[in-house]
Amino acid sequence: MTDIILAIVILFAAGLICAVLLALASHYMGVEVDETVNRVRECLPGANCGACGYTGCDGYAEALAKGGVKTNLCIPGGAGAASAIAAALGVAAEEAVAVCAFVHCNGTDEHTSKCAEVDGCSSCKAACLTFGGGESCIYSCLGCGDCADVCPADAICVKDGIARVDTRLCIGCGMCAKTCPKHIISMLPRTARAAVICSNHDTGAVANKTCKVGCIACRKCEKTCPHGAITVVNNLAVIDYEKCTGCRECVAVCPKKCIKSVDFEAHTIG
Amino acid sequence: MELFRSLVIILMGSVLVNNYVLSRFLGICPFLGVSKKLDQATGMGVSVIFVMIMATLATWPIQTFILDPLGLGYLQTIVFILVIAALVQFIEIVLKKFMPALHKSLGVYLPLITTNCAVLGVTINNINDGYNFLESIVAALGCGLGFLLAMVLFAGVRSRLDESDVPQHFKGLPITLISASIVALAFMGFGGIVENLFPAV
């Protein structure tokens, strides 16, 4: 009988000691969890896409709670998240620019050709390491769909050998732009009315040979643009969306049709 | 010298011959669950080493100075579970307070290890094998290192598996279990090696 009582007492004592120890530990050594972090975290969409530049939504929430960080960095959350965060933190909301991914290449199978066949590669990254991927234009989209694989919103598909973004589905996280080994995907503001659908930095003569719709750096757009929004940098037209008013005069004048009129909300390109 | 030799045998024996995952098949759930990526596998392995040593530090005196003198050896399992669970929670609180960086890297894994069978297995086997305090700690270190080794090796195997063309019906867990058994078979080759590596002088 005493054995049973002893066993119960020992076990009870062990449990009690552990409990008291833990209670004391959490009382004296507990770390205050900042409530703001939780409040801010609830404003974020939880996609953990990393577009803000932090390690997922939790990382961004912690950085926000510490202060000194812009509230408009969450791209999937957009203006809604920015204002909610600003309300939770009690600061003035910053304007959030909604963006959309855009593939700067129109080198579909009918416009360009391959100079080599890359066999057995299922990723752009691997194909790119193999002599640049076998497209005659080395700036061209390889069409293996690395961007489609990383897209958390399933907004990218490969059509005619070129990655295409469904702008209605794109959440603007920028994962595709980071993944693309050719760096031909960029995040454009959703208000953009025209976009350069080429990434070719070759001179006109070379670009003309490799692709029927490549930018030949003729500078017609640069001269035509009434707002000075287009500059040809390194043989490629670049649109400054701060200055662009959406008049689309460049679209009309481009001889290679490599500046396209776009409307991301209506999902029309070209 | 003799002491050193026996400690080395215990250490190497528990890393290679009696590997907890691959020979005794304890701690299989973290072995299969967290071995997908090398960094996670390493984090888990290091946390297990840490917890195994701490658990042994706590449970060996309890068994030797409290349970055995009172003739309550049969309470071993339940007391050890209680003590280890409380200990891991306690360590987590302490780490969070004083070493936030370490807590960030190990913190995710600590609750997973709280009631891990490998940790309980180490503490109970140390008692069953009749090790003294020092030997127990060395054995715990060895078992933890063995766990880390198994995790790291298997993370490598799994990253190869991801790249390979597995038949449809074997995709996922089946091929993982098959490759785990092959790795375990490979570890059988270590049987008897340690005593011969460090022969008695």
The portion of residues assigned to helices of chain B is over 70%
Please describe the biggest sheet of chain B, giving its number of strands, its sense, and whether it closes into a barrel. Answer: none
CATH topology of the largest domain in chain A: Alpha-Beta Plaits
Spans of at least 5 consecutive residues with low confidence of chain A: none
CATH architecture heading of the largest domain in chain A: 2-Layer Sandwich
Whole-number mean pLDDT of chain B: 86
Order of helices and strands of chain A: HHHHEHHEEHEEHHEEHEE
Task: Please work out how many helical segments of chain B DSSP would assign.
Answer: 10
Number of helices of chain A: 10
Topology pattern of chain B, helix = H, strand = E: HHHHHHHHHH
Shape of chain A: elongated
Oligomeric status of the shown chains? heterodimer
What's the total number of strands of chain B? 0
Helix content of chain A: 25-40%
The proportion of strand residues of chain B reads under 5%
Radius of gyration of chain A: 27 Å
- Straight-line distance between termini of chain A: 90 Å
Count of extended strands of chain A? 9
Topology overview:
The complex is a heterodimer of chains A (270) and B (201).
Chain A: H1 2-29, H2 35-43, H3 56-66, H4 78-89, E1 99-103, H5 124-129, H6 146-150, E2 156-159, E3 162-165, H7 175-179, E4 185-189, E5 194-196, H8 204-210, H9 220-224, E6 230-233, E7 236-239, H10 249-253, E8 259-263, E9 268-269
Helix pairs in contact in A: 2-3, 2-4
Chain B: H1 2-17, H2 28-33, H3 38-67, H4 76-98, H5 100-106, H6 110-113, H7 117-128, H8 133-163, H9 173-188, H10 193-197
Helix pairs in contact in B: 1-8, 3-4, 3-7, 3-8, 4-5, 4-7, 7-8, 8-9
